[in-house]
Design a protein that fits this description.
Layout (H helix, E strand, L loop, with lengths): L16 H17 L17 H23 L12 H13 L5 H12 L2 E5 L2 E5 L7 E2 H4 L5 H18 L12 H6 L4 H24 L5 H54 L3 H7 L1 H16 L8 H53 L1
Antiparallel strand pairs: 1-2, 2-3
Length: 359
């Protein structure tokens, strides 16, 4: 009870969030004490089903059962036994993509490419537009599993899981500057460990240089320069392809939005009450105007073919994968050779120190 009007006789009751939570708790306790089945009223649902969708399921399932009974009587097999609403299908498609995607860009791109579902974000909320529809479905109509916070959390978890299982390239050990460490206050035990570590690291270094035929210092420097050039060139191509893929994805999104909302924009011109029509179809008209503005900004007078855009995106993705492999291979070898060069330089410097100390 927050205010006197909530409990004083003769006052008008005002329903607040705290009051509603109190009532939910009371209902749950009453049901529990009576031994009745009780759902959790305090926490939201991952997959929310409205009353309208519930009855649509019921009616659709009854109709499907009658059709299946007629097919069975005619001796024909039934194709589908469980009826699914548009939202059921949408939930299943989003879940299948959400399980594999590792970023929001990847998530929206997979939805558009595999199922033709467009995703938009507005004021921290996500909305989905399935193929064949003109009106977006808000995430809260599907369930908390599909809202922005849950989607971003799932994508981050996928990315972290992928990083943990990703292959880590072998790196040769780096030599330790023992004299510098001893001056910093390291003890005899550290010195013993460092000597063993340096022997192993130097052995790995010599094996690497022998396998690549780079025992000559000039040949090693030349190979490092070649790899450095290849590394930066491949990275530049990958960045360029990523930019073109991003533009392609944005263009496909706006083309799909324009095609799906074009009829609504035409209806606005002939509407008897434009203001009312504008309010009723605010989301579709906003998406249509954004698509028109994007096409004009990019000087696109003719609407590109979605199939051609998808084929172009697939080609760009294939080229990116090729150049990314070149970039990754060059990076791994470059890091190994740089470590080897550093080890050789430190080894000879340490050797000179030892000879000077003996003299």
């Amino acid at each position: 009870m927050q205010k006197p009007r909530d409990w004083r006789e003769g006052m008008k009751h005002s329903s607040t969030a705290q009051t509603m939570r109190h009532l939910r708790v009371e209902v749950m306790e009453l049901c529990e004490s009576a031994g009745l089945y009780q759902i959790d009223l305090l926490n939201s649902s991952k997959e929310r089903v409205s009353e309208a969708e519930y009855w649509a399921r019921r009616r659709g399932q009854q109709k499907l059962d009658r059709e299946n009974a007629a097919l069975t009587a005619a001796g024909q097999p039934s194709r589908q036994k469980k009826f699914e609403t548009v939202k059921d299908t949408l939930r299943k498609q989003i879940s299948s993509v959400l399980y594999r995607a590792t970023s929001f860009e990847d998530f929206s791109d997979r939805l558009l490419q595999q199922y033709g579902i467009a995703v938009k974000e507005s004021r921290g909320c996500l909305s989905y537009l399935p193929a064949g529809r003109t009106k977006f479905i808000r995430a809260k109509k599907l369930g908390d599993k599909f809202d922005q916070a849950a989607v971003l959390a799932a994508l981050q978890e996928n990315a972290e899981r992928k990083r943990t299982i990703q292959f880590k390239p072998d790196r040769i050990g780096k030599l330790v500057d023992i004299q510098a460490k001893l001056k910093q206050g390291k003890g005899i035990g550290y010195e013993r460990w460092a000597k063993k570590h340096n022997l192993k690291a130097m052995a790995q270094t010599l094996i690497l240089l022998q396998e690549n035929g780079l025992l000559n210092e000039d040949a090693l420097d030349q190979r490092i320069t070649e790899l450095d050039t290849k590394f930066h060139d491949s990275l530049a191509v990958v960045k360029d392809l990523e930019g073109r893929m991003k533009f392609n994805k944005e263009l496909r999104y706006h083309v799909a939005a324009y095609a799906s909302t074009k009829s609504v924009a035409q209806q606005l011109k002939t509407a008897k009450r434009p203001a009312v029509f504008e309010e009723q179809h605010h989301a579709e008209l906003t998406a249509h105007r954004a698509a028109v503005a994007y096409l004009k900004a990019n000087d696109l007078t003719k609407l590109p073919s979605p199939k051609k855009l998808e084929a172009e995106y697939a080609q760009l993705a294939s080229e990116k994968a090729t150049f990314y492999e070149q970039y990754k291979e060059a990076k791994i070898e470059l890091l190994k050779l740089k470590d080897a060069k550093q080890n050789v330089a430190l080894f000879f410097r340490e050797d000179e120190r030892t000879q000077h100390h003996e003299r």
